Amino acid sequence: xxITIEERVLEKFKDKAxxxxxxxxxxxxxxxxxxxxxxxRIMFDELKARYTISVGTDARPLHSNFEVLHFFAFDRDxxxxxxxxxxxPDDPRIDSITPIVPGANWAEREIRDFIxxxxxxxxxxxxxxxxxxxxxGVFPLRKEVPYxxxxxxxxxxxxxxxxxxxxxxxxxxxxxxxxxxxxxQFRLFIEGENVVGADHRGFYVHRxxxxxxxxxxxxxxxxxxxxxxxxxxxxxxxxCYCQSVEAAxxxxxxxxxxxxxxxxxxMERVHSHLLWLGLxxxxxxxxxxxxxxxxxxxxxxxxxxxxTGNRKNYGMNLVGGTRxxxxxxxREELLRVIDQTETETLELCKTLLNDSAFIARTKxxxxxxxxEVRLTGALGPTARASGxxxxxxxxxxxxxxxxxxxxxxxxxxxxxxxxxLVRVYETIESxxxxxxxxxxxxxxxxxxxxxxxxxxxxxxxxxxESPRGEDFHYIMLGENNRPYRWKVRAPSYMNIPxxxxxxxxxxxxxxxxxxxGSIDPCISCTERLEIIDRxxxxxxxxxxxxxxxxxxxxxxx
Amino acid sequence: MSYLEAGIITIxxxxxxxxxxxxxxxxxxxxxxxxxxxxxxxxxxxFKLFGKEDITRSPLAVLYISCIASATFVLALQGDLIxxxxxxxxxxxxxxxxxxxxxxxxxxAGGAREVMMFVIVEPVMAAAFLSYAIKAGSFIxxxxxxxxxxxxxxxxxxxxMFLAMQAQMGKLPFDLAEAEQELIGGVFLExxxxxxxxxxxxxxxxxxxxAYLIAFxxxxxxxxxxxxLFLYTLIKTFIIIILAVTAEALFPRLxxxxxxxxxxxxxxxxxxxxIAFSTxxx
Lengths: 557, 282
What we know:
The complex is a heterodimer of chains A (557) and B (282).
Chain A: H1 5-13, E1 19-23, E2 26-31, H2 36-46, E3 50-59, H3 60-63, E4 65-74, E5 79-87, E6 93-95, H4 105-114, E7 118-120, E8 169-173, E9 185-191, E10 194-201, H5 209-215, H6 222-227, H7 234-248, H8 255-283, H9 287-308, E11 317-318, E12 321-322, H10 331-353, H11 356-362, H12 370-376, H13 380-384, H14 392-395, H15 416-440, E13 459-466, E14 469-476, E15 485-489, H16 491-502, H17 511-518, H18 523-526, E16 531-533, E17 538-540, H19 544-553
Helix pairs in contact in A: 8-9, 8-15, 8-17, 9-10, 10-15
Chain B: H1 3-31, H2 41-50, H3 59-76, H4 81-101, H5 105-136, H6 141-147, H7 152-168, H8 180-183, H9 193-218, H10 227-250, H11 256-280
């Protein structure tokens, strides 16, 4: 019998492992802190695992140490490994793995910002998430920091951007820019029209969603919040959260619920991809197709409202299943909408791909090689357009995907055009899946009641394939009916850094917007709102009544 | 044509340019499956802008619209061709100078693109004019009109002029100097209030003027005179503007190298051919 991937991993670490916890398809290995670089090298270079994310946990109430977890995935084997390193609070330092795994750049800086574990030897130790005037030595995800802590506002501290190379000018794309729906900044270093370098800054609107989930909400309130992580692909977050809690608590959800989750996920993918195709056209100044793509997307939004009651925030998920089924009498109507959308999408995409100017603007622009995908950990259509065959729906089956027929679209153009094509074909695949689900949807209850309290301190990680790539949630169950640690890693968190790799020599200013757009960056996902009045530094929450009043005033002061 | 008549036509053009801009916006919106703003929207926009705070007040905006208005006057007067082209180019120079003076990298990038574009697009237009001038043996616009008759060089010149039109109007796929999604408005980025209003009005007038020019000089048929001529020219201008907007809606924006390559080919294939054929007398 061939040795399993679990045995291979254990074989590598058998001398060093302090503790091993094996769950179905998941493996947690505790390793000594000074072994971190070597362990990362073994996983990433020798075993060719895909780097997923790093998580920091303030586990001092449990065993008086901080935890740093590095997650890796073996996609072919549906297997995930977590390497756990304990960091004592009196010496909160750990060797950085970014020199080996460039994709860990953000995650390690985030752990430093939030938990206070210093990555030693990190090539770019600037602040990542915290605001410039956040006081030193306050780490918001530590358990003693209250969720509503408000530091006094100070001035005179500024983010340090990289200096442009001699002779080049800095051109800031963002934080507010016509093609960016949300604030993020790419600083292009340009010589004439050519881009010779770039720097990034994001996290202008970090919302502290993880902290809220860990300190204020209960298990069944979090799906409501998780759905609001993203304005486009929110459902995938709530599915991912529910799955990880269900798996950690060993809850088996009914089959109809699985189908409904898949249906809503695919519906979300269709509307997200059509939205992206429209935006891509807009970025290229092709406003006619932009408007047409959004026009044909509208029936899908109608469908969402018909099925769930809402156009965007579906509110279908609970831990243990979904709130409602799709009524029998509307299924015919839904099938008609699916057919109509399919025809219209094919027609429009044919128009788009016959346009020689569109091809000229996207072909061989924003190249990301397969090796760079591995290094940065890029996901979803971005990876699949570079010939990297990963898709959570097939590799780590969840919801109803094991029962559905679909093809994973992989192209090897490595450029913006391929990313567009992957999304076009995926839209068609999703529509097919939705049709199949409507025909095969089993009858029965969609929710199991979770009566008992979930056992604390069990861990699990789960993933879904969102429209932009793998959405990953790590959960550690806690007391008081809420998680102890809830980590959200949206696909854009891995995809956005890969943009800097796409600015290859020969990129011009004109290519930059479509290159940024090509990964479909979702900034709100990455920055998981409270409203802060900058002049007074006061944070206030608006009541529903106040919100209505503001919107009725139309934003007038 | 007398100075008075030409003056009246110029003023009419200046006043009606925003209306044509409004028609363009409405037509574009219909192609997009949108309702679009009412056709008098541009007047409202200009009125609003004149009342707004002007942060980067600059005489170059006044100079810009004056150059274009003067070019309109020269055209209405059916006067000297060289001064017409000079005035049109001078307006572009005003725009470039303004954008470079602002010290904004996006505006500067827009200005640089504007320079690159007019260096290659102006010759396309000038060569088309030249082929007419060679046949007429004169640089006076009224002589050009009298002289035109359909032959090979005329067709080449008209084709070149139509291809140059899109860039001369600053429309897609050649709106590179403005390129909202790339340069946030480029050359106009720092303009506000009345400065922006003057630039917008000037650009609307320029777009109108280019269409008017083609209708008036390059396709002067049917040959009539007086008020009827003005009416016919307006109708032709209207049709040309609709064509320009339709073309705009059908193409995404090109990159500067692709745009320059396109015009280099147009220059060789259409403009030079027009000159060559007119030298041969066909």
